[in-house]
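ARCHIVE RECORD
Type: protein–small molecule complex
Small molecule: KG4
Source of inputs: curated submission
Record status: active
Notes field left blank by submitter.
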Amino acid sequence: MLILGIESTCDETGVALVKDGRTILKNVISSSVPLHKEYGGVIPEIAAREQIKIIIPLIEQAIESVPISQIDAIAVSYGPGLIGSLLIGVETAKTLAVAWNKKLIAVNHLVGHFYSNWLDGRRDILFPAVALVVSGGHTDLLFFKNKNSHKLLGSTMDDAAGEAFDKVAKVLGLGYPGGPAVESCAEKFTRKGELNPFPKPLLKSGDYNFSFSGLKTAALYYVRGLKTPSSSPPIRGYAAGEEKRGDIAASIEQAIIDVLVAKTVRAAKDFHAKTVLLGGGVSANKKLRRELATAIKKNLPDSKFYIPDSNLTTDNAGMIAFAGYNKYTNGKAVEYNKIGVNPNFELKSWK
Ligand code: KG4
Ligand code: ZN
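STRUCTURE (tokenized, with ligand):
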């Protein structure tokens, strides 16, 4: 069975062809990140304009060696995301569905991140499972009784973890996207054990919710307090030495990771998870991958821990095609006129 996946929720445009829900035949991606760099964040209008240019060439590339008659259905992410970007992906998918006479499968983008854990052919994901999905817009802890039934345990109450990385990067003048920039700046910090005491929000709150907006403010005030002669105001493009910047980046990164790890381990213990899964753009962070793996091994030695391969952590259409395959085999494909975009989609309403 062949599913064509289409992803265009934010600044990436992806098209993938996945066979039998396990083998990625094609997974092509184009990013407009370089065009947003000078603004320090995604400009929705620019993202959508790029997507409208690139989506058809990417589809052609993905299906070049496969007759259209062999494609069984088209999966498309329909939210959450930027409305202009979503419309391009969804309207393209609907047009193809009419032209090629295929069914459509509407996929929640965040569910796609969760399913990216299956993509390299792993079949031994045991249930019950707990998943942490950490992206630029969401931080969600989920409990899975089985692959198709979930409960939202907790979410961020304000900024997502990725958003915190992006905003702190802006404060430190590190550019966009912030996550990888903060990570590589933090890697230069070598004086271990001397991290700044930034807050670890809701670490001991006893629930599974997160809150990261205070970290950005804490970083801002910290930087403002550093009166360097060349920085007036000393906020953006912060001019203190590289070492100080690395020190702040490492401290903030550690604060975010500590909270993510503590809450995920607590949820996994409370719900007797046989598998713990990580997904979303922030799961590209090497320290988070390492520290969560270590904490699971220590606290839940009999549980498995899976992370998608690095190339599948950020937005891609392979994960959308795989999530689509699952819905398709559960009889959830629809006619082209039955779907629309849902920019504010929450996992609570995942069906
Ligand atoms: O899942 P994703 O590609 O897009 C959304 O659905 O939002 O996630 C993007 C987020 C951005 O906030 C980016 O800064 C963050 O993931 N990110 C990282 C890393 N790579 C990407 N955060 C921390 N460390 C990284 N290495
Ligand atoms: Zn994403």
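CURATOR ANNOTATION: The CA atoms of residues 293 and 305 lie 7 Å apart.
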